[in-house]
Amino acid sequence: MKLAYYPGCVARATGKEYEISTRSVCSALGIELEEIDDWNCCGATHVSNELVAVGLAARNLARTELPVMTGCSICYSKLRSAVLRLEDNGVKRKVNSVLEREYTGAEVKHLIEVIMEVLEGADDGVIASLEGLKVAPYYGCLLTRPCGGIDSPENPAVLEKLLRTLGAEPVDFRLKMKCCGGPIFMTEEAAASDTAFKILECAKESGADAIMVVCPLCHLMLDANQHAMEKKFGAEIDLPVLYVTQLTGLALGLGVEELGMGMNSVSPAPVLEKLEAARGAEEEEGEVC
Amino acid sequence: MRIGVYVCHCGLNIAGVLDPQDLSEFAGTLPDVEVARDIQFTCSDTGQETIKEDIVEHKLDGVVVAACSPRLHEPTFRKVIADAGMNPFLLEMANIREQCSWVHMEEPARAQEKAKDLIRMAVAKAALLNPLVGEVMPVSQDVLVIGGGVAGIQAALDLADSGLRVYLVERKPTIGGYMALLTDVFPTNDCSICVLAPKMTDVYNHPLITLISYAEILNIEGSVGRFTVSGIKKARFVDESLCKGCINDCAAVCPVEVPDEYQFGLGKRKAIYMPIPQSVPLVVCIDPQACVGCGLCAEACPVDAVKYDQEPEEFKFDVGAIIVATGWKPFDPARKEEFGYGRYKDVITGLQMERLLNAAGPTRGEVVRPSTGEIARSIAFIQCVGSRDHTVGNVYCSRVCCMYALKNAQLVKEKDPDADITIHYIDMRAGGEGYEEFYERAQRLGINFVRGRVSEVQEVDGGLVLTYEDTLLGRFRNSRYDLVCLSTGLEANSDADVVGNILGLAKRPDGFFEIAHPKMRPVEAHIDGVFIAGCASGPKEIQVSIAQGGAAAAKALRLLSRGELALDPVTAMVDTDKCIGCKLCVEICPSKAISVERTAMVDEASCKGCGTCAAACPVDAIDMRLFSDEQILAQVRAATATKREYPFIVGFLCNWCSYAGADLAGTSRIQYPPNMRVIRVMCVGRVDPSFVIEALRNGADGVLISGCRLGECHYDKGNYQAYQRVQVLRGVLEAVGVNPKRVKIIWCAASEGEILAKEMRTFVDELKEIGSIGDELKGGSA
Amino acid sequence: MNEFTKEVLRLAGDEVKTCIQCGTCSASCPTAHLMDNSIRKLVKFVLEGMKDEALNSRSIWLCTSCLACTVRCPRGIRPMAVVSALKQIYEAEGMRNRDSIHEEIFNRHIKERGRVSEFFLSAEYMLRNPQSAAQIISFGAELIPRGKIDIEIRPDSIEGRDEVKRIFEELGGA
Ligand SMILES: Cc1cc2nc3c(=O)[nH]c(=O)nc-3n(C[C@H](O)[C@H](O)[C@H](O)COP(=O)(O)OP(=O)(O)OC[C@H]3O[C@@H](n4cnc5c(N)ncnc54)[C@H](O)[C@@H]3O)c2cc1C
Ligand code: SF4
Ligand code: SF4
Ligand code: SF4
Ligand code: SF4
C-alpha cells in the first residue's frame, strides 16, 4: 500500500516519537509513505477564517494524487472538513483561484484507519500480543468530529477494536471523548490543565496500565504535562501515555528505539515490564507442556 | 350566438361610480349581443325574472351578468338560467363591483373604461362557452379503512353506524394500534385499554364491518367511487374460526421464547402467542420465524385449531372511498447515541415506560430498573428525543411527548410520592383542553422541571449520570438517576409506504402523508375519494386522532351517501390526435387523474380542473372544458382591444387566493390604479405561456400573474409550476429583446387584498420606468 | 438586526438565528464550567446584538475548538463557528489580549513561512506576553532535553510560501 503522508507541524516537534514510530510501524506493515512535497501547516485550531483554513488544507491535498494519511487528529479533522467544504463548487472555485495546483478531490485517512485495515487483512500480523495489558483508549476531540468519518462521534469503538486486535484489553474509559484542552494550553494553561487532569484521573480510576493516544497534542497534554499537573493538583498519576503506533509497534515486535519510547516523559517502563512478565509466564507455561 | 348582457346598479354600489346605462348601451354594440339592459338589483327576484323572460323571448344561448364577483353570485345566476331551460355553464360574469367600482372610487372615468373592457372580455368568452353536462356515476358505497388504530377504529364505527359497509384492513394480528399498549392516558389519566377495548369489540361484532387482520394490501386500482382493492391475509397457522383464544394450553407447551414486540423488548412471548389479552380478533398466532415446528401446540390445542399448513389467503373487493389511518412508528433512540439507549439497560423509552406502568405489563405495574429489577426511586425524563432535532433529520415537534412525560411522571409519583422525578425539557408544550392544568398538576405533585437539553447520559458505578446546563440558572450539572426515560418522538410509519405509493399519496418533508390543505382540508388527501386520519398525517394525541377518524368518516359518507357522484364537468380533455404520449401531464397532475397508455386519458371523476396539465402539454393536446385556451385567448384579445390605459396590464389571478384577495380589496375599499384587466383562472398553473405572449403581442405593457402563497396552492403545487414556467418565459423574452420584467409573478392569499393592491401600484410604477411595450425593441434597432 | 449580528451570521451561518437556547452546546462543552458566558449565551448575545458583552467574554478564548457543540446542536447550528466569527471580529476591531496575540503570531508564522515552529512560536509569544515565561520555560525544560524541540537559529520556510500568503490575503478578505 502506498500513501501520501502528511506529518503536520507537531510531528516535527513535540510529537517526534509519533513520527518515528509511525514510520517504523508503517514499514513493518508494508505501507509505503510518500511525504507530501513542500506541505504547509493546516492552521490547526488557530485559523478562524474558514475559507483560509480550507485553502491551507486544499494546498496540501492538491499536491498529491495518492490518498492522504496523517496521524494528527487535528490535521485529520481539518483536512476532512476541507474536503467536505470543497464539495461546494463555489468554494472550490474560489480556493482554486489562488492555488498553484488545482484541487480536484481527495481521500483523507487517519493513521489508525490504515493500521486497522492492514492488521485485519493479515492474520499473522501481531507477533507479540499485548496480552495482559489494560489500556485506556483516548479518542480526544477531533478524531471523530465533525461526524461521518472514522466512527461515530458519540459512541466510537474503533480504538477498542484496535486494542483487542493487538491483544490488549481496552478499559471502560468515561472521558475518552472529552477534549484534552491542548489547543488552548499555551494561552489558557489553567483551563487546559483542569480539563486534561480530569482525563488523567479518570483513566487512572479505570485501572488502566497506560493511555493510548492518536494525536500529538493529546500526547503533549497528557504525557509531557503530566508531571507538572501532578504537582499543580497534588495528586499522583504516573500513567504512561503511549501513541497508538508505539503500542502497535510493541505488538509487532519492534524495538523500543524504533518506537522512540525514550522520548516519552512518563516512563513506559512499567508497561514494558508487564509485557515482559506476561510473555515470560507464557513461555514457562509452554515449557511445562 | 345570441347573448344577453345585464349590467347591475347594485343600488349605488356600482352606479355610484360607474354609469350602468352607458355600459349597457356599450354592451349592445358588441358582436353577438342580442339584448343588453341595466337593472337595479340583478340578483333580486325582479332582476332574475327579467333574465328568465329574455332567455325565453330572445332565445338566448349566452348570458353575461356585469355585477359583483362570480365568487359571490355565479351559483345564483347559473341556477337562474338553468331554471329558464338554459345550460348553466353558458353564463359569464364581469366583476365590475369588487374589482372596479369599489376600488377606483376616485377615478370614475377610468373605471368606466375598465368596466367596458371587462364586459367586452366577458362577452368574448360567453360567445365561446359550450354547454357542459356533469355526468352522474353510480358508485360503490363501501369504504376501506386501512389501519386499525384508534383513528381507523373510530372511522370504521362511524361509517358502519351510518349504514355503510366497511372493510377494515389491519397489518398486525390485532387491531388497537399503539393506544392498546398505553397505560393510563392524558389528560384525564383513565385506563387506555379500558376505554379502547369496547370499541375494538364493537368493530368485531358490527354486522357491517368486515375486519381483515394480519393482512397486507398489495394493490388498489381505479378512482373515486370505484376502487378495487386486493391483498393477502397472512397465515396465522391457526384457524380463526376454531381458536377459542384460551392461549394457555398451546403457549404453555411451546418451548420457544422470543422478545415480545408488544412489550417493546421488556418481556418475552412464545412462538405461539396472543398479542395482547384484549386482542381483536381474539385468536392466537404462530410466529413462523420463531417456531421450531415441534408440533407440541397442535397436540395441546383442545379444539385442533393449529394448522401448520395454512396458506395466505387472497382478498379482493370494491369500495367507493378509502380512509388511510396507518398511524406512526416510534423513533429509534439508539440513533441518539449520546443517550446510551441500547448500551445502558436502565435507559428506556416512553413506550417501555408505558408498559412498566401498565398493570398488565411485564412487571405488573412496577417501575423497575431493567438492570437489577429493583424499583427505580429516581427517574429522569429527557424530552425531544428524536424530535426538533436536525442531527436526526426530524425538525418537527412530536406534540404528545411533553404530555405523556407529564402523565408518566404523575403516575410514578402517585405510586411513590417520595420518588425523585425530573423532566429535562427545552420547552414544555401543553396546548389542548385541560393540558396546561395537567402540567400544573404535575408541578403540584412535586415533579422537578429543568430547562436545558441533556447533552449526554453515562453509566457510572451502576447509576446513570446526566450532563446538562440548567439554562434558567446558567449552571452546569451532573445528576445521577436510577432510571432514564427518553421521550422519543413519533415518525412517519414505514409500514404505510407501500399503501402510500399505490395510492400516490404525497408526503411532506417530515415524511408524514400530506393533507389537501394545511388548514382547510385536514382529513382529505390530494386524491379524490381518499381521506387521511390520525397520526398518518402527523403526530397527534388520541382525542384528535379520534376526531379525525370521525371527520374522515363524515367526509366519506358525504361523498358516497347518494350512491352516485355528480361529476364536475370543469375538467381537462385530451385531443388524442395531438397527444404524443410524453407523460409530462401524468407527473404534473396533482390529482393523479391522468394516465397514459398510448395517449393520455383523463379520469373525469378525479380531475379537479386546475388546468396545470393543459398549460404543461408541449403539443397543446390538452384543453379544459371551461377556461379553455380559446376562451382565455379571446378574453386576452378583448382586453387589449382599446388599451385606454398606460401602462396597460393583463392579469391572471387564481380563483382561490388571488382573485379572492382582489375581491377583498374591493370589500375593504382599498383603492388602486385601474390599469389592470383581470382574467380569472382556477389555478395559476393554468397560465400557458402563450396567453402571456398573446397579451404582450397585442400591446399589453405588462402581465401580472398572481397565485396562492407557496405551499398553499389549492391544487398542491400549481404555483410552483407557474413560477417555473414564468422563469423560462422570462428567459425567452430576454432572448428576443423584450424586457423580462414585464412579466411578474406574485403570491397573494385571499386575506391579502392590501398586498395585491400594493403589488399593482409598484408594478404600474415599474412598467412606467420600462416604458411602453416595444420601446426596448425600438431602442435596440436604433 | 445590527451590523454586528449580521457580520456574525455571515461568518457563522444564517441558521444561528434559529437557536432555541436549549443548552446542548454548553452542556457538551469541555470548558463551559470555566467560561464567564457559555457558548449558549454567546449565541444569545450575538442574536441580541450585544457586541460588547460578546467580544469581552473570556469564553471566546476558552473554546478548544473541539466541535462537541457542533455535532450535537439540534438546530444544525455550528456554535464553534460563532466563536471563530467572534475571534475574527475581535481582531478586526483592533482589540488585543494574550490569546489574540497568540492567534495573530500563529497565523503570521504560517502566512510568512508556511509552517509553524514550536520554538519560534513560543519565543515570540513569550516576548510579547512576558507573564507566560514561567510556563514556557518550564515546559521547555521538560521537552528540550528529550530532543523534542529543536533550538533553531533561523526559522526555515517552505518553498510555496508565496502561495500560502495568497491563501491568507485573497481568501481571508472574503
Ligand atoms: C409513549 C406514548 C404515550 C402516549 N400517551 C398518550 C396519552 O396518554 N394520551 C393521548 O392522547 N395520546 C397518547 N399518545 C399518542 C397516541 O399513541 C396516538 O395518538 C395514537 O396512537 C394515534 O392513533 P392512530 O390510529 O393514528 O395510529 P396507530 O396507533 O399507530 O394505529 C395505526 C394502525 O395502523 C396499522 N397499519 C399501519 N400500516 C398499515 C398498513 N400498511 N396496512 C394495514 N394496517 C396498517 C398499524 O398496525 C396500527 O394498528 C402516546 C404516544 C406515545 C409514544
Ligand atoms: S409448533 Fe411452534 S408454536 Fe407450536 S409449540 Fe412448537 S415452537 Fe411453539
Ligand atoms: S411535544 Fe415536547 S418533548 Fe415532544 S418534541 Fe414537542 S417539545 Fe419536544
Ligand atoms: S445547541 Fe444549538 S440551538 Fe441549542 S443553545 Fe446551542 S446553538 Fe442554540
Ligand atoms: S468547540 Fe468550543 S464552544 Fe464548542 S464545545 Fe468545544 S470548546 Fe465548547
Provide an overview of this structure.
The complex is a heterotrimer of chains A (289), B (782) and C (174). Chain A is an alpha/beta fold and 289 residues long. Chain A is built from eleven helices and eight strands. Chain A has a four-stranded parallel sheet, with helices on both faces. Chain A has a four-stranded parallel sheet with strand order 6-5-7-8. In chain A, helix 1 links the parallel strand 1 (2-5) and strand 2 (32-35). In chain A, helix 1 packs parallel to helix 10. Chain B folds into six domains: 1-132, Rossmann fold (3-Layer(aba) Sandwich), CATH 3.40.50; 143-233 and 319-327 and 493-560, FAD/NAD(P)-binding domain; 248-311, Alpha-Beta Plaits, CATH 3.30.70; 332-489, FAD/NAD(P)-binding domain (3-Layer(bba) Sandwich); 567-622, Alpha-Beta Plaits (2-Layer Sandwich); 627-773, Rossmann fold (3-Layer(aba) Sandwich), CATH 3.40.50. Chain B contains 23 helices and 38 strands. The longest helix of chain B has 19 residues, at 108-126. The relative contact order of chain B is 0.09. Chain C contains eleven helices and no strands. Chain C is globular and about 50 Å long. At the B-C interface, strand 25 of B face helix 2 of C. Bound molecules: flavin-adenine dinucleotide and iron/sulfur cluster (4 copies). Residues 28-31, 39, 63-69, 79-80, 83 of chain C line the site of one iron/sulfur cluster (SF4). One iron/sulfur cluster (SF4) is lined by residues 19-25, 40, 43, 73-75, 77, 79 of chain C.
Calculate the mean pLDDT score of chain C and round it.
93
The number of distinct helices of chain C, counting runs of at least 4 residues, comes to 11
The major pleated sheet of chain A works out as: 4 strands, parallel
Shape of chain A: globular
By CATH, the architecture of the largest domain in chain A is named 3-Layer(aba) Sandwich
Query: Could you give the order of strands across the largest sheet of chain A?
Result: 2-1-3-4
Unreliable segments of chain A (pLDDT under 50, ≥5 consecutive)?
none
Notable features of this structure?
heterotrimer, B: 782 residues, alpha/beta, Rossmann fold, FAD/NAD(P)-binding domain, Alpha-Beta Plaits, 6 domains, five-stranded parallel sheet, 23 helices, C: 174 residues, mainly alpha, Fumarate Reductase Iron-sulfur Protein, Chain B, domain 2, 2 domains, 11 helices, binds flavin-adenine dinucleotide, binds iron/sulfur cluster
